[in-house]
Design brief:
There is one protein chain. The protein is α+β, with helices and mostly antiparallel strands. The chain has a single domain, classed as Jelly Rolls. The protein contains 8 helices and 12 strands. α1 packs parallel to α5 and α2 crosses α6. The relative contact order is 0.20. Bound molecules: fe (ii) ion. The site of fe (ii) ion has 3 residues, from loops.
Length: 246
């Protein structure tokens, strides 16, 4: 991929930011318990660039299966770093990080390069691919925030989002969302209880995830648990063994 492409996507992302209403995003984010979904945020020329990267890394998908919890494919941050410059440009874009920090009300930082989830792709490509309800729990000393960007959704799967689960006295709310190309989701990982319903036959759903944290330090026990979860549930043992030292 040429340098030109990366510079171009940087500029496109900067231009896009100037069209977004941060105060409105912020109001909705807090109203919904630190969760926000916006349709048609990322325009198709940018989605096309991201999808070129997706096709480059598609042969390197790691398939995983945890009975009763999840089934699907993943491509880790290590592979994104090597083969996906447009995706990386989105993850690193300082204007977007500042924009999200303004919404969350706290400065967001990149995950350490040793975290395979930092910027990763999730592929739902086989019938029954899904993930059960979970939080994106932070194993860091700070909070962990998730961005999801819909890249392709030719499926009947839904992103299920249960809001206000940790707000006593407030009625919970459940949303069933399609993640069409360009859909942008942003939430505090410890606040949003979420799942993806099983993929039908001959369907495909591809989602990009970006993770940001408020403090990237991690305790030793948390590091061990996080590594085991990643190896079994997401990226395989080779990703763990190939991890650059933190
Ligand atoms: Fe999640």
């Amino acid at each position: 991929m040429s340098q030109h492409t990366t510079i171009d996507i940087d500029q496109q992302l900067t231009d896009l930011l100037s069209t977004l209403g941060r105060e409105e995003w912020k109001r909705r984010y807090w109203e919904q318990g630190e969760f926000l979904v916006q349709d048609q945020v990322i325009p198709s020329p940018i989605i096309d660039s991201l999808m070129k990267d997706v096709e480059t890394v598609r042969p390197k998908i790691n398939r995983n299966f945890i009975p009763g919890h999840k089934k699907g494919g993943s491509v880790s941050f290590y592979l994104v770093q090597q083969y996906a410059p447009s995706i990386l440009a989105l993850y690193y874009h300082q204007g977007w990080i500042d924009f999200l920090s303004g919404i969350a009300g706290v400065p967001l930082l990149l995950c350490p390069e040793s975290d395979p989830h930092a910027c990763a792709l999730y592929f739902y490509t086989e019938a029954g691919d899904h993930i059960g309800y979970h939080y994106d729990t932070s194993y860091y000393k700070g909070d962990r925030f998730t961005v999801l960007v819909g890249l392709r959704d030719r499926s009947t799967s839904k992103l299920m989002c249960r809001l206000h689960t940790k707000e006593p006295g407030r009625p919970q709310e459940e949303l069933a969302l399609a993640t069409d190309p360009g859909t942008y989701v942003f939430f505090n990982g410890d606040k949003l209880y979420h799942a993806v319903t099983p993929l039908g036959a001959n369907e495909e759903r591809i989602v990009l995830t970006l993770q940001y944290v408020t403090n990237p330090a991690m305790g030793l026990a948390q590091r061990w648990f996080s590594n085991m979860k990643d190896a079994v549930g997401y990226f395989g043992w080779s990703a763990l063994l190939g991890k650059p030292s933190a």
